[in-house]
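Ticket #4471: structure output looks truncated?

Reporter: J.K.
Steps to reproduce: submitted the chain below (294 residues) through the standard prediction queue, then opened the result file.
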Amino acid sequence: MTLLVGFAPDGRGKGVLHLAAMLARSSGDDLVVVAIIPAPWPPSPARVDAEWRAEVERAAHDALDRARERLPADLPARYLVRHARSTPAGLLEMAEEVDASVIVTGPVGSTTGRLLHSSHVPVAVAPRGFRAPPDARVTRVTAAYGGSDDDLVVAAAGVAARVGASLRVASFAVRARPPFTAGVGRLADNAMEAEWVQEIEARARTALGTIENLPAVPRDLEAVIGHGETWEEALEDVEWHDRDVLVVGSSSIGPLARVFLGSRAAKIVRHAPVPVVCVPRGVAAELAEEAATV
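Returned output as attached by the reporter:
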């Protein structure tokens, strides 16, 4: 299998290399590091245009040389420069070409945002400032669980078992504080939240019971709920370790074969303190079936 790493042609973005190395060391996959540069449109024979394109390509190759120096030497990797109409388009084309299992990219911005609504393969997002030791491996996989993401949880369990990591099922209860509250309104909110917590805990226990019967089971299993008045607070309410990876699924209203994040998953990705892997529903279903039959 192959991890496709999108590296900025200007050489910025060490975090994406740290995440790629940690994922590759955990999974045993090879790395393809690619710098996407703009294809000229319309094509022009003008000398100034040719000189500019040559300079951009030189800068991209220099950036890949720096990436080669930063990645651990014992990890198999190829380094490529590709022309494309846009960075997301180029990464998706390269993912097809190298049969990538995951696209690894940097913090959420315009490029990552477009990938998260169009990629047909999982996208791993490195949070801003992410760093990991050269020998780091994933030690825990956390699956974001909203009560109906059973395929995603089973898929995450299969991956966790394969890389020797533990599995955690995490749900998030976010309740915004109103500008002013009558006592009865707050009591009603508390009752609704308590009911939701009971239901999500029951569903999480059922999901963990399914995982316990898989052919390969992660070394540890647990379920947690994070509470907060914002998504950031709810995510911070859950304990995180340096070598954690959070897995989220795509929206049920989006295309089956694409990531297409809904509002809940998008907020999780934006505020997560650890790397996030966003998985299309179709891929989650395939991985879940794999985990159940291995």
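Triage note (M.O.): checked the attachment and the full token line is present. Confidence is low (pLDDT under 50) at residues 180-185.
Status: closed, working as intended.
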